[in-house]
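Researcher: Quick test of sequence recovery. Tokens follow.
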């Protein structure tokens, strides 16, 4: 089953790192992805740019509303995600506990909801 591991941390903690600390953290993340890939658990993932580069889009009564930044004011910001393959939630949580930035914030683990195939209206 697929699980999304959403990585959150306080950007100010990362911004306060020295260049070497930041480089070391990135190398640790790359090594972790390599390990997860070798074990057959890593499907995809990306780090995200800081929240000041974000935009939130809402559709209300047919009108598109766009605002700068993330949707909610929170203490921790979404920093990236890992898409993992795991037997169950327990294994996904165990895998997520090894994601290096977890020590700076929170990693939310959530099962991926598969959408049903698109109904094309064609009859068999």
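Model:
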């Amino acid at each position: 089953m697929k699980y999304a591991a959403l990585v959150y941390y306080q950007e100010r903690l990362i911004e306060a790192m020295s260049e070497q600390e930041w480089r070391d953290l990135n190398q640790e993340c790359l090594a972790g992805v390599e390990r997860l890939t070798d074990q057959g658990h890593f499907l995809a993932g990306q780090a995200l740019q800081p929240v000041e580069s974000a935009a939130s889009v809402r559709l209300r009564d047919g009108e598109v509303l766009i605002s700068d930044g993330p949707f909610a004011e929170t203490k921790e910001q979404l920093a990236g995600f890992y898409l993992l393959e795991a037997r169950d939630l327990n294994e996904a949580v165990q895998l997520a506990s090894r994601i290096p930035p977890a020590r700076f914030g929170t990693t939310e683990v959530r099962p991926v909801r598969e959408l049903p195939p698109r109904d094309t209206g064609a009859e068999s």
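The chain has one domain: 2-111.
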